[in-house]
Amino acid sequence: MRVIFYTGKGGSGKSVISCATALKLSELGYETLVISSDPAHTISDALETQVHSAPTRLSGRDRKKLWAIQVDPIREAREKFGVIQEYIVSLFKSKGLDEVLAYEIAALPNMTEFVSLLKVVEFVESNNYDVIVLDTVPSGEALKNIYLPTLLGSTTAKLIKFVAPLVNITKVVEPVVGIPTPSKEVINEDIKLIEILGRLKDIIIDREVTSLRLVANPDAFSIQNMRRTHLLANLYNVNVDLGIMNKVIPEKVSDSYFNDWKSAQARYLAEAESAFHPLPLKKLRLFPSEVKGLKLLSELGNELFGDEDPAEVYFEGEAIKVTVSNHSLEVVVPLPAASRYKEVCEVERVGEDLSVVISTEIGEVRNFIPLPAIAQVMKLDSAKVLNDVLHIYFIENERG
Ligand SMILES: Nc1ncnc2c1ncn2[C@@H]1O[C@H](COP(=O)(O)OP(=O)(O)O)[C@@H](O)[C@H]1O
Ligand SMILES: [Mg+2]
Question: Under CATH, which number does the domain 1-317 receive?
Fold first, then answer.
């Protein structure tokens, strides 16, 4: 089972590359599902097939193994988490916000992106596919939601379960405190969500299963976006196995009109090579037209992957190392070279993980580090960054 995510700035080519990858995989014999939550319905366009909200098999004799699904995130969110949303709305309303605004806020921007992630759990667990390709993956920001259960802590879930039967009693408190208490239904949905999130996290941080691939164009803005996502992915322990620089003007274009574009692209490509080393970067040329239809997608897929198997794990970033010595413990977390790290601003235990906030040249980032069991019985001593490596030290708890 493989799960491949493509992420990158809008317009960089995620949808086209997702479809081309899925097409190639299906031709290699993998039962493949491509999932898109892009509201612009670009995969219907790219595949030139009406793609529905349930897995749609592509027509044609040789396409038996290619499936596509267009997720409508707003509808999904409403169906699956409508109760929670209603609760949030009632919370806002009780604070005096008008209803329209309350709904606007409750439709959390991350939530819509996030619903397509939850879909992954459903399809991985269905066991119907060999590879799932996700188009329009949540930006790096949305990845942090997979740590929600960690943040809440397993005890919270247990506590909620325990408290649930008592909720009707607390309803009495409502007029006094002035905020509505969640109904039993909301609490049950909450627990369900926390459980699904836990399973999602297991899938996403399994480096043999899930790969995140970064798509960018050779321009400043796109590469900056790629750096940030790379950084967040590494901090959230998600394996990035490939970068794709798309829409590179081919060498043979000799029209002097494009000279400046070509030299700027060459500069940005070199910059990307050094910023992301040792991550493999593939280059993909700018086609002479939009990439639509299976014929062009197949051509693009062949140029991108040649004889390779797109399901392979192209690269494995370094994982976290733990060394135990006399009475102390060191946890070493390699950070991606995509950004320069300054200092550790805040370290705190959150459930079984450690939350570390580090300031970098692109702002503060929070890192959740899963701790080995032995660290649970030790005391956090200090943390520092040294040459893009985060060191965390624990010492034995004093007795007595
Ligand atoms: N290598 C390429 N050559 C030419 N056109 C491309 C290439 N990659 C993407 N496109 C075109 O660029 C537009 C945006 O691509 P798309 O895959 O929809 O981007 P995203 O999903 O990242 O927003 C589409 O019209 C697509 O056909
Ligand atoms: Mg798209």
Answer: 3.40.50.300
Matching residue, tokens 């796109």: 222
CB of 39 sitting under 6 A from ligand 1: no
Span from the CA of 293 to the centroid of ligand 1 (angstroms): 12
Q: Calculate how far, in angstroms, residue 40's C-alpha sits from the geometric centre of ligand 2.
A: 7
Ligand 2 centroid to 46 CA: how many Å? Answer: 10
- Cα 32 from chain centroid? 20
CB of 37 closer than 6 angstroms to any ligand 1 atom = no
Confidence of residue 289 (pLDDT cuts 50, 70, 90): very high
Q: Delimit the domains of the chain by residue range.
A: 1-317, 321-396
Both structure tokens of 234: 């590494």
Residue showing tokens 């901090």: 235
**Rounded-to-integer distance, Cα 210 and Cα 120, Å:** 11
> pLDDT tens digits for 317-352?
876 777 877 788 888 887 776 667 888 888 888 776
Rounded Cα–Cα distance for residues 327 and 232 (Å): 32
Q: Which ligand is nearest to the CA of 45?
A: 1
At 128-170, the pLDDT tens digits run 999 999 987 656 666 666 665 555 444 444 444 444 444 443 4
Q: How confident is the model at residue 181 (pLDDT cuts 50, 70, 90)?
A: low
Of 33-37, 171-175, 181-185, the range with the highest mean pLDDT is: 33-37
If one looks up domain 321-396 in CATH, what number appears?
Answer: 2.60.40.790
Closest CA to 245 of 11, 81, 13, 3: 13
* Residue whose CA is at the smallest distance from ligand 1 atom 2: 286
Integer Cα distance of 92 and 346 in angstroms: 31
Question: Which amino acid is it at 84?
Answer: I
Measure the CA–CA gap between 27 and 63, rounded to whole angstroms: 7
| pLDDT score at 96 | 64
Closest ligand 1 atom number to CA of residue 38: 21
Residue 315 has pLDDT above 90, yes or no: yes
- Residue 116 tokens read as 């397509």
Name the residue of 7, 214, 291, 296 to mutate for ligand 1: max ligand atoms within 8 A of Cβ.
291
Give the pTM.
0.78
CB 22 within 8 A of CB 14: no
Q: What string of DSSP letters covers 247-258?
A: EEPPTT---GGG
